[in-house]
Amino acid sequence: MASSPVDGVLSLTVDNLGEAAELEMGALPTETPLGRHETAVAVVPRLLGQLDQRGISATFFIEGLNAEIYPDLLREIAGRGHEIGFHAWRHEQWGELSAAEQAANLERGLAAFGRLDLEISGLRPPGGQLGAGGTGVLREAGLRYCSPAGSGIGLVEGVAVLPFEWRHVDASCVLPPLGPAREQISGSSDPIEPARFVAWLEAEIDKLARDGGYMAIVLHPLMLGWLGEEPLAALLDRVGAAAAEDELWVATCSEVAESVAAHPDRFGNGAMLDTASWT
Asked: How far is CA 161 from the centre of its chain?
């Protein structure tokens, strides 16, 4: 497997699990029993099998609440060689929290994961923004990296910054506020069909292999039904082939962060953050 930090680097990431985001948005009826969410009982277990088949290690950014609701599933994700990152306690919009609220949110979440003996190295902030705490609150909590919206890659105050771009996020194909991302993909702000999105990602992977850099693909379990079996299989096949043929270093975010910390001078001009959000 290619491992030089000057090569193209790709992280396959999966955001959200279970009822957390719906609870935060008030979209779940109060009488709904917890612990039976389709993403946790069917979608993610099926995805784990698909990743196993292709030898892909992914990073799952999961809300801390799930450590209490789905502890066995979290242990299974980690046990299969995938990374678990923090995605706030209950999918709170990270950029809207004060620094003190972020610190408390981190403390609660890391403690919950810690009770499962799961080590958390990084955060992807829901909404894509770091907000008032910046990288400082993450460093104080002992995290080694963050993955906000933006581009590039870099090291800030000892914390690796591994941005994702909205145009590489499945939900950007349909969410109304992310029309500008769709325009980058298709030239139009109209919703994008799954096959078109996967073809775009495949072209982006080809470009990454040719030109180098860093790319994070962001999938959501709730969106995999929209994506469909064949487009998902095509995307995973392309990622698996890139890793198997040493076109790219396909690595978890934690692995990439370790490389950035060891070789900060090899990653160009650093990270540039994006102020756009899906809300």
From this structure: 13
